[in-house]
């Protein structure tokens, strides 16, 4: 029968009795009976009342999924305001709080049911005093408690804490200088803008909480939100690249505007075609132009973001966007994939959107630092890379206007960056233009989750963080249109680790 006609009562009864081995398929049917097209169905209010009446029944796996579904219905209740699903759930807050305190007393703070209850209760800031009073004695990991309390907090537009909360405020212990910088920035915003920022931060935290709870149910958890990932030590061995902003690669570097050759000059480099002068700043050539619109947004925030990127922000993003809650894809596995799949033709190897150089280092060890060029827009990232990898040539430039001659690069790598680019298709076309025949394009990015519940959380994260995901077939088509053929692809969770080869 059509999803809109699925009997929610029958599905609820069937779900409560299904063995745990079959629970995920039964849960998918239950979801379809009360949640469709991103919002509650007409059967949702009656189902909510039934779910609250049977809250503590069944196994923990059953209870956790019921609570998560309640949270999902509240999260999307604005899609069907006349149904007042939020009000129905709110009427059961005392029962939900009793379930949380009872369950938390006999289980770990990261159990799926506890996490699902935190996700659900975090939607009711109007009841913050009651919720926090009842949950104050519960032992929770610092990351989860800080996230929960921030979701319940009210926005003080005169002194807000904006942007330094994801994936948990516990990871953002700011110095006095950082606090002062934040206050100065927030003071320039009008109240409506502050409220919009605050609400976006809250949505991002709720999406993370929901995704973590669902991840705990489906793939399991490994480690905490802020667990340190192993990072290779700085590699300062080997000679620095030859002096001059073009290093060893003057033959392939071009003006990004007209693609004529550059000549080195005292200030940096000058285009032999259009005459554009590019400055050598901070020890590397800046090949952006005013027409790029290439503001250094990351650079402006780098004093706060850079120290937390590898230890907090990156692992959290991979967990939530790649369904990597069990750390099935480790940093070591990423480095190994890259070392195994980069097969350069003759010519330099480009690390596109290189960041602070974590993957640049693997390229340098694999093909030799003298062959590697690192390109990024963020000055702070390039500063870090330049200080730790002196043998690699750093350039500041745009992915959609690569400053290289046609068919001049032996290989290109773009690791965990394509989803953040404003025009990823244009970046792929540029990679195809610049690669030599036989050279590889290695890529780590993400695909949409096939599970509609997890896809909801993933979509919320995409909207809040300004990132995308790619259907594998569409990505393969974009690569083919750029002259490349996919030769290897692995897709654990919602990762896409891909290797394409430039055809002749």
Major sheet = 11 strands, mixed
Any idea what the shape is?
elongated
**What is the count of structural domains?**
2
SSE class: alpha/beta
What does this structure look like?
- It is built from 18 helices and 13 strands.
- Helix 15 links the parallel strand 8 and strand 9.
- Helix content is 45%, strand content 13%.
- It folds into 2 domains: 216 residues, no CATH class; 174 residues, Vaccinia Virus protein VP39 (Rossmann fold).
- It is elongated, with a radius of gyration of 25 Å.
- It is of the alpha/beta class.
- The strands form 2 sheets. The protein has an 11-stranded mixed beta sheet with strand order 3-4-5-6-9-8-7-10-11-13-12, sandwiched between helices. A two-stranded antiparallel sheet has the order 1-2.
What would you say about this model in short?
The protein is of the alpha/beta class. It has helices at residues 8-17, 23-34, 44-53, 60-75, 85-90, 93-105, 112-121, 128-135, 142-152, 176-186, 191-218, 297-322, 331-341, 358-367, 379-388, 424-434, 452-465, 472-481, and strands spanning 35-36, 39-40, 262-264, 268-271, 277-281, 284-286, 349-352, 372-376, 393-396, 409-415, 435-446, 484-490, 495-502.
Q: Keywords, please?
A:
two-stranded antiparallel ribbon; 2 domains; 504 residues; Rossmann fold; 11-stranded mixed beta sheet
């Amino acid at each position: 029968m059509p999803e809109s006609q699925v009997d929610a009562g029958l599905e609820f009864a069937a779900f409560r009795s299904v063995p745990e081995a079959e629970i995920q398929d039964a849960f998918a049917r239950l979801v379809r009976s009360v949640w469709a097209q991103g919002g509650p169905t007409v059967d949702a209010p009656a189902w909510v009342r039934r779910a609250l009446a049977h809250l503590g029944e069944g196994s923990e796996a059953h209870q956790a999924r019921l609570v998560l579904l309640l949270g999902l219905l509240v999260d999307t209740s604005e899609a069907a305001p006349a149904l007042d699903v939020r009000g129905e759930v709110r009427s059961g807050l005392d029962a939900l709080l009793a379930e949380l305190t009872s369950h938390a007393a006999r289980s770990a703070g990261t159990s799926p049911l506890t996490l699902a209850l935190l996700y659900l209760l975090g939607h009711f800031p109007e009841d913050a005093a009651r919720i926090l009073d009842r949950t104050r004695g519960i032992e929770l990991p610092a990351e989860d408690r800080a996230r929960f309390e921030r979701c319940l907090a009210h926005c003080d537009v005169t002194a807000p804490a904006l942007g330094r909360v994801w994936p948990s405020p516990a990871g953002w212990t700011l110095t006095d200088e950082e606090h002062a910088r934040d206050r100065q920035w927030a003071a320039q915003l009008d109240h409506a803008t502050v409220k919009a920022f605050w609400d976006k931060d809250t949505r991002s935290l709720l999406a993370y909480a929901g995704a973590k709870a669902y991840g705990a149910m489906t793939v399991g958890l490994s480690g905490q939100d802020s667990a340190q990932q192993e990072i290779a030590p700085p590699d300062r061995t080997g000679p620095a690249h030859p002096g001059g902003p073009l290093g060893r690669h003057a033959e392939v570097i071009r003006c990004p505007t007209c693609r004529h050759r550059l000549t080195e000059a005292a200030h940096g480099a000058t285009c032999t075609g259009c005459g554009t002068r590019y400055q050598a700043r901070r020890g590397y050539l800046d090949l952006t132009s005013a027409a790029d619109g290439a503001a250094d947004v990351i650079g402006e925030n780098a004093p706060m973001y850079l120290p937390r990127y590898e230890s907090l922000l990156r692992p959290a993003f991979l967990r939530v966007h790649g369904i990597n809650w069990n750390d099935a894809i480790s940093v070591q596995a990423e480095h190994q994939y890259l070392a195994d799949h980069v097969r350069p033709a003759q010519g330099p190897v480009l690390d596109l959107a290189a960041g602070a150089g974590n993957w640049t280092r693997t390229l340098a060890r694999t093909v030799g630092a003298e062959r590697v060029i690192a390109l990024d827009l963020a000055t702070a990232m390039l500063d870090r890379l330049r200080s730790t990898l002196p043998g690699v040539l750093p350039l500041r430039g745009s992915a959609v206007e690569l400053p290289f001659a046609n068919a001049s690069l032996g290989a290109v790598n773009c690791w965990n960056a394509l989803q953040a680019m404003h025009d990823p298709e244009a970046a792929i076309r540029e990679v195809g233009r610049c690669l030599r025949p036989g050279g590889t394009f290695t890529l780590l990015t993400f695909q949409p989750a096939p599970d509609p519940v997890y896809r909801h959380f993933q979509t919320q994260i995409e909207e809040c963080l300004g990132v995308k995901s790619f259907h594998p077939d569409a990505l393969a088509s974009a690569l083919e249109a750029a002259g490349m053929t996919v030769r290897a692809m692995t897709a654990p969770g919602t990762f896409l680790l891909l290797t394409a080869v430039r055809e002749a």
